[in-house]
Amino acid sequence: MTDKEILELYRDGQQQRAFNEIVKNYSERLYWHVRSLVCSHEDTDDLLQDIFVKVWTALPSFRGEAQFYTWLYRIATNVALNFLGKQKVRSALSFESLADSQVKKIEDDPWFNGDELELQLSKAIQKLPQKQKAVFCLRYYQELSYEEISEIMGSSVGALKASYHFAYEKIKKELKDNFSE
Amino acid sequence: MSKVSVMKEIKNTFNVPEGYFDQLQKRLEAIPSEHPIVQAPVVTVPFWTRVRPYVALAACMLMAFAVGNFFLGRNHTPADAEYAYQDYYYMADLIPVTNPYAIYDDAPIELYTPESSSEDDVVEYLLSSGTSVDYIAYLLNQ
Predict the structure, then answer these.
(1) Which end of chain A has fewer surrounding CB within 10 Å, N or C?
(2) Which range marks the domain in which residue B91 is found?
(3) Domains in chain A with CATH codes
(4) pTM across the whole model
(5) Do A60 and B13 touch (CB under 8 A)?
(6) Taking phi first (over 0 means left), then psi (-120 to 50 degrees means alpha), and beta for anything else, what does residue A39 get?
(7) Which class for B89: exposed (0-12), middle (13-18), buried (19 or more C-beta within 10 A)?
């Protein structure tokens, strides 16, 4: 079912069915997007619940100014970034950087199945500033266009290109440093 | 194979427990029953309730204006009047005039205009200035 059909279903009064279709179409995609940002499966699972509660309660106010899937990604990205912000505060209180705690999570993650290079790439992504991380994940993992990311992040395409470029350069340097050791 | 699944195959380095997404989907589908959307009741606000803040604001401004006007208007002392009088003369001095009395005093301007001379005065003046009697007689006959 397309986004348009889902929204028509919702407006026709079949809210529950429309919501089930949204879950069917997007739960997996949003799971991977959030997972790429927060790493931990358990955290992603909790956040996904929050995200879909927000989607359900905000659906009546969706007026169709943005594309439906970018609206969903925006909610998911905001929830994930808020979570990382809170994690950052907690890490600061325990005298540990957020990047270090995220890297530790990847190393201890029983659900990580990548090789050494992929492990280093995931670690390098976790060391990026939050906005760069979000832009990089949306572009690299979700393969969204800059225009779509612009709708999600509310930034200009130029700023996003610059963010992606900086993220790419940082990751390249990180990987070079790790593999030249 | 869809674009998303190819992308995941290449780039996804994370894994999930067996059957996780089916279980997740069921859990998420229960959200509407757990979080029913409560429609906010439609409340009609009476006209007076809507305009009351604006009326109050206008009344406050009017009151401030009236009070300000009352105090500013009342604070004129005799000294203020004296300063105003001096200012008037100061300004009058700056204006080039041929007859300053016309400015300084309220008397009619005719009082300061010299009286016109009589014929006798003119004759007397001409005689005293050495003009010949013939020429004076010639002038008077013209």
Answers:
(1) C
(2) 78-107
(3) 3-180 (1.10.1740.10)
(4) 0.61
(5) no
(6) left
(7) exposed
